[in-house]
């Protein structure tokens, strides 16, 4: 499925001018049909999966309890 720049911006939740810049810099692959740029939606699937994976890893890391320090001596 191909998206316009406007649809891609909505899909990725970033401004249209940033999408245009990424297309010009060839960071996003796009086709020009003579009137507008068309962007293949599936090129973002792997990226979005990776982002979700790293979010889960960070969340797990933040929720992990801090181990008790074995070097602390009891002062009593």
Descriptive account of the structure:
The chain has 3 helices and 3 strands, in the order E-H-H-E-E-H. The chain is an alpha+beta fold and 76 residues long. It has one domain (2-63): Arc Repressor Mutant, subunit A (Orthogonal Bundle). Strands 1-3-2 form a 3-stranded antiparallel sheet. Helix 1 (5-12) crosses helix 2 (16-24).
List the helices and strands and how they pair.
Elements: E1 2-3, H1 5-12, H2 16-24, E2 30-32, E3 37-40, H3 45-63
Antiparallel strand pairs: 1-3, 2-3
Helix pairs in contact: 1-2
Organism: Mesobacillus maritimus
GO molecular function, one term: DNA binding
Keywords: DNA-binding
Euclidean distance between termini CA atoms = 69 Å
The count of helical stretches stands at 3
The low-confidence runs, each spanning 5 or more residues with pLDDT under 50, are none
Strand content: 5-15%
Q: Look at the structure and give the mean pLDDT.
A: 88
By secondary-structure content and strand pairing, the structural class works out as alpha+beta
Helix content: 40-55%
Count of the domains: 1
Any idea what the shape is?
Answer: rod-shaped
The H/E string reads EHHEEH
- Rg, rounded, reads 22 Å
| Main beta sheet strand tally, sense and closure | 3 strands, antiparallel
CATH topology description: Arc Repressor Mutant, subunit A
Number of strands: 3
Strand order of the largest sheet: 1-3-2
CATH class: Mainly Alpha
Second-tier CATH architecture: Orthogonal Bundle
GO molecular function, one term: DNA binding
Protein name: Excisionase family DNA-binding protein
Keywords: DNA-binding
Organism: Mesobacillus maritimus
């Amino acid at each position: 499925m191909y998206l316009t720049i406007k649809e891609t911006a909505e899909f990725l939740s970033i401004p249209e001018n940033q999408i245009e810049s990424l297309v010009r810099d060839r960071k996003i692959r796009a086709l020009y049909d003579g009137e507008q740029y068309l962007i293949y939606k599936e090129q973002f699937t792997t990226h979005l999966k990776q982002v979700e994976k790293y979010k889960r890893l960070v969340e797990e890391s933040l929720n992990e309890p801090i181990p008790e320090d074995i070097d602390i001596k009891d002062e009593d």
